[in-house]
Write a structure and sequence with these properties.
CATH topology of the largest domain in chain B: OB fold (Dihydrolipoamide Acetyltransferase, E2P)
Number of domains of chain A: 4
Number of domains of chain B: 2
Radius of gyration of chain B: 21 Å
CATH topology of the largest domain in chain A: D-amino Acid Aminotransferase, Chain A, domain 1
Radius of gyration of chain A: 25 Å
CATH superfamily of the largest domain in chain A: ATP-grasp fold, B domain
Distance between the termini of chain B: 53 Å
CATH class of the largest domain in chain B: Mainly Beta
CATH superfamily of the largest domain in chain B: RNA polymerase II/Efflux pump adaptor protein, barrel-sandwich hybrid domain
Strand order of the largest sheet of chain B: 1-2-3-4-5
Number of strands of chain A: 23
Distance between the termini of chain A: 50 Å
Strand order of the largest sheet of chain A: 14-13-10-11-12-15-22-20
Largest sheet of chain A: 8 strands, antiparallel
Largest interface: A-B, 51 and 45 residues
Structural class of chain B: mainly beta
Shape of chain B: elongated
Number of strands of chain B: 12
Oligomer: heterodimer
Strand content of chain A: 15-25%
Shape of chain A: globular
Helix content of chain B: under 10%
CATH architecture of the largest domain in chain A: 2-Layer Sandwich
Strand content of chain B: over 45%
CATH class of the largest domain in chain A: Alpha Beta
Helix content of chain A: 25-40%
Number of helices of chain B: 1
Chain lengths: 502, 131
């Protein structure tokens, strides 16, 4: 097993900074990689060494297996942490690392491969006794056989074109009465759209929540879970806010979901940190949950788990990769308090969340009780058009959900980011929404409530005379610039510095 | 009252119509435009006092039918000769790992499509023409 004498971080932005910090804490030298767009990015400045891997487009740099392996060899790194996104769930990359004698800090390539296939993962879940969304493609596609299959799956159902995707031609059927007509209509639409009338029948999950379980597995047969993360606040399959515990999950449900996640990880031969995603229907002890997929990497939202369990997940990943046994027993782990993460994106809420690229003219992270900011941004830096628009994650925690919520709001109110548009004001509105306050959320929350949240921002009463501040800023800053210029012309300040001993 | 206290910070007090006492605002000037941050809200004020936070209604087809930023063309939803209604999806772009739908700014007929799937498109270059 690799000793991990030097770790290369095959990523950028906040997650690269996060992992490099962990390396520094553990006394392991770190190697950053960067594209031409990131030569002076925070992750490059923080690492012990930095290697250029290519031009700005990710395909030629952060997604280039050859460039990253070459950087690892040149720097003498014997391990690679992939972060999330980019190559983190790429089985070929994990295999290439193994081939090169480099420890990939994550599961083995074969496990990534198997869990990356929706069909194979679903089959594995079924075999491990983990519930999946009931559904089938009847071999006999006659209307009568499809109807029989629908009754077997149970109402309400979703009829989907087997050949389709992207929600095209899907039909919701709530009861037996509308079934026959529904099948005929779905068949016509499937034929028109895909030239194939084969139908797939799936149970419709009403008002589902997206709840995931964090797991850790070592080389010694130990598999544990670190409870749930509630991730229902999302739009266009991108999460915006995550929290733990989930307001839908009771101790009994938590145990059932945790056991299911552990069983699946065992069945998959899982290693390192991973996340099992579920859809949850209903709340309370009798809620149902259904397997969605496994994310074979560290998640963006991992900090909320860290805040309530006290476990540092990146430290744990490194320890597992070193071949160490997990030091925690399942029964000794607890969730203490509550944590909420909000993702600060460079985007314009008034223009359909259009991502924004541009300079961070002024950027000050809040520092206050119960607030952690994970970022790869810095004042004077920029949000590049080449990568995703995540500026930072603000994680608030407290003894109760209400305290964590209020701290998140206070953190955002003290987080000036100027030079690009961000979703900070929208996040505050979200945190103050009565349904969010009550914990009454599901995956359609932002689709349903987003327009009213946006309306509140654009109609927000400007409680102060902003123009007066702007005028003062323009005057003050141009005066500052003028006097700096005048002084600069007179003398270089370094020439006039005198020694000072405090 | 607005009093600069250095480092882009301004102490504001005695604000009209507000229940607030003293607050710290942050502001920075850039190319004749001021960005102001107060209590979680950000405002962009143009130097000539035109409030840029007011939504800009794009009427110019050229602007509406081009990408707002460098992006990859993911899918073209229409073909030349096709009639579209205002708000119909025309093409789907992807930039910064986000989907960017380009929708019809008005009803009309698609005259021509000047892009291919998979192509990298530049801002300001019209992707198709409406007649």
């Amino acid at each position: 097993m690799g000793r991990l004498t030097q770790i290369l971080i095959a990523n950028r932005g906040e997650i690269a900074v996060r992992v490099i910090r962990a390396c520094r804490e553990l006394g392991i030298p770190s190697v950053a990689v960067y594209s031409d767009a990131d030569a002076r990015a925070p992750h490059v400045l923080l690492a012990d060494r930095a290697v250029r891997i290519g031009p700005a487009p990710a395909a030629a740099s952060y997604l280039s297996i050859a460039a990253i392996l070459k950087a690892a060899r040149d720097a003498g790194a014997d391990a690679i942490h992939p972060g999330y996104g980019f190559l983190s769930e790429n089985a070929a990359f994990a295999a290439a690392c193994a081939e090169a004698g480099i420890t990939f800090i994550g599961p083995p390539a074969a496990v990534i491969d198997r869990l990356g296939s929706k069909i194979a993962a679903r089959a594995l879940a079924k075999k491990a006794g983990v519930p999946v969304v009931p559904g089938e493609t009847p071999a006999d596609q006659s209307n009568d056989a499809v109807a029989a299959s629908a009754r077997k799956v149970g109402f309400p159902i979703l009829l989907k074109p087997s050949a389709g995707g992207g929600g095209i031609g899907m039909k919701t059927i709530r009861d037996q009465r509308s079934l026959a007509a529904g099948i005929e209509q779905a068949r016509r639409e499937a034929l028109a759209a895909f030239g194939d009338g084969t139908l797939y029948i799936e149970r419709l999950i009403e008002r589902p929540r997206h709840v995931e379980i964090q797991v850790l597995a070592d080389d010694h047969g130990n598999v544990i879970h670190l409870f749930e993360r509630e991730c229902s606040i999302q739009r266009r399959h991108q999460k915006v806010l995550e929290e733990t515990p989930s307001t839908a999950v009771t101790p009994k449900l938590r145990q059932r979901m945790g056991d299911a996640a552990v069983a699946l990880a065992r069945a998959a031969g899982y290693r390192n940190a991973g996340t099992v995603e579920f859809l949850v229907e209903g709340t309370g002890d009798n809620a149902s949950f259904y397997f969605l997929e496994v994310n074979t990497r560290l998640q963006v939202e991992h900090p909320v788990t860290e805040r309530v369990t006290g476990v540092d997940l990146v430290h744990a990943q490194i320890a597992i990769a070193r071949g160490e046994a997990l030091p925690w027993k399942q029964g000794a782990l607890t969730q203490r308090g509550h944590a909420i993460e909000v993702r600060v994106y460079a985007e314009d809420p008034s223009r359909d969340d259009l991502p924004q690229a541009g300079p961070l003219l002024l950027y000050r992270e809040p520092s206050m009780p119960g607030v952690r900011v994970d970022s790869g941004a810095t004042e004077g830096g920029e949000i590049s058009v080449h990568y995703d628009p995540l500026v930072a994650k603000l994680i608030a925690d407290g003894e109760t959900r209400e305290i964590a919520r209020r701290r998140a709001i206070e953190g955002l109110r003290s987080y000036p980011i100027l030079g690009i548009r961000t979703n900070v004001a929208l996040l505050i509105e979200l945190l103050e929404h009565p349904r969010f306050v009550a914990g009454d959320i599901d995956t359609r929350f932002l689709d349903v409530e987003g327009p009213s949240l946006r309306a509140r921002i654009s109609n927000a009463n400007i409680p102060l005379d902003v123009k007066e501040i702007a005028r003062a800023a323009l005057v003050d800053l141009s005066a500052e610039a003028r006097s700096a210029k005048a002084e600069g012309a007179k003398a270089d300040p370094w020439d006039t510095l005198r020694g000072y001993r405090g | 009252m607005v009093e600069p206290i250095g480092g882009g910070r301004f102490r504001i007090s005695g604000i009209r119509d507000s229940g607030f006492g003293t607050r710290i605002a942050y502001a920075v000037a850039d190319r004749g435009r001021a960005w102001v941050f107060i209590e979680g809200h950000t405002y962009v004020i143009e130097g000539d006092d035109r409030d840029a936070t007011e939504r800009v209604h794009v009427t110019d087809d050229q602007l509406a039918l081009s990408s707002p930023m460098p992006a990859t063309m993911v899918a073209i939803a229409v073909a030349p000769g096709q009639d579209v209604a205002e708000g119909d999806l025309l093409v789907m772009l992807e930039a910064m790992k986000m989907e960017l739908p380009i929708k019809a700014p008005r009803a009309g007929r698609v005259k021509s499509v000047a892009c291919r799937e998979g192509e990298l498109v530049q801002p300001g270059v019209p992707l198709l023409e409406l007649e």
